[in-house]
Amino acid sequence: MDWLAAKSALRAQPSALWPQARSIIMLGLNYGPGEDPRGILERKTRGAISVYARGDDYHDIIKPRLKAIARWLVAQAGGDVKVFVDTAPVMEKPLAAAAGIGWQGKHTNLVSREFGSWLFLGAIFTTLDLPLDAEERDHCGTCRACLDVCPTDAFPAPYRLDARRCISYLTIEHKGPIPRALRAGMGNRIYGCDDCLAVCPWNKFAQAGREAKLAARDALNAPALAELARLDDASFRALFAKSPVKRTGRDRFLRNVLIAIGNSGTPSLASEAERLLADASPLVRGAAVWALARLAPERAARLADERLERESDAAVHEEWRALAMERT
């Protein structure tokens, strides 16, 4: 089938997730971009969205196809099946490595000799007792490109990731304010980060993905930060319908946009940050303080006393106090 960019593979293993399972079938779907996704990082007034999130939500694409394969397997060989694609605590990457699809690189992500770093993974658990495929060995060698490129130093050692410093975690999963020490390193990355994937030398063998539903939408390919800063909840949900970005919610997303605005070095964007000082969300207001202070420090300083008197949120208070300390 065309949508399978990597071979299917088999690994027999009992599982606490589903004790009846005797085998796990691991599959990969290529979503490789047609160009180096790091090019947008030089366009400071535009937002960088991770390659996988520029099209439709991969969960909605992969799971029905896994179910179709699982039904075919049952029809051919019997047994029972369950399918998973980021829907349960399944360790997809080590399982895929054990199945021979690729190996876990020094950035902890799966790397394929045929398809580089750009693979979604899915699993079919079955009660059938299937033969094992050969495990893929590590081909990273002495390369440390993925470790050295990380803008927030999220790799304390090869094969170890400190998620608390990872831009993908910070922009997607982290619910509170972004730690101040990590904001500058985020640049204009507003949802995820592809740096450690994109820099991998094995991508010279990668192919562009062929699944049309995963292709980047025009609206999500280098969107203007000024336009994103004006999203209310309804327009956020409309723009990111069927996209994985929608799961962050409008407030967390605008937090990310404001960090990118603060990193843009573009004074004309200061007005967007100033407008959002009055946003209903404390998370957005706090990020707006930081962005305005970066682009128009004198204006931010003049507003500080007035805004502090009206501000009820402790975290936003802390942003204003941090601005005052930086000026002393």
What would your notes on this structure say?
With 328 residues, the protein is α+β, with helices and mostly antiparallel strands. It has a domain of 105 residues. It contains 13 helices and 8 strands. The strands form 3 sheets. It has a 4-stranded antiparallel β-sheet, with helices on both faces. The chain has a two-stranded parallel sheet with strand order 3-8. A two-stranded antiparallel ribbon has the order 5-6. The longest helix has 20 residues. It starts with 5 loop residues before the first strand and ends with a helix.
User: In which order are the strands of the major sheet placed?
Assistant: 1-2-7-4
Rg to the nearest angstrom? 22 Å
- Characterize the largest beta sheet: strand count, sense, and whether it forms a barrel: 4 strands, antiparallel
How many E strands? 8
Distance between the termini: 63 Å
Quick description:
The protein has 328 residues and is of the alpha+beta class. Helix content is 38%, strand content 11%.
Q: What is the topology?
A:
Blueprint: E1 6-12, E2 23-30, E3 48-49, H1 58-77, E4 81-84, H2 92-99, E5 103-104, E6 110-111, E7 119-126, H3 145-149, H4 167-172, H5 180-186, E8 189-191, H6 195-198, H7 225-228, H8 233-239, H9 249-263, H10 270-275, H11 282-295, H12 297-310, H13 314-327
Parallel strand pairs: 3-8
Antiparallel strand pairs: 1-2, 2-7, 4-7, 5-6
Features:
328 residues, alpha+beta
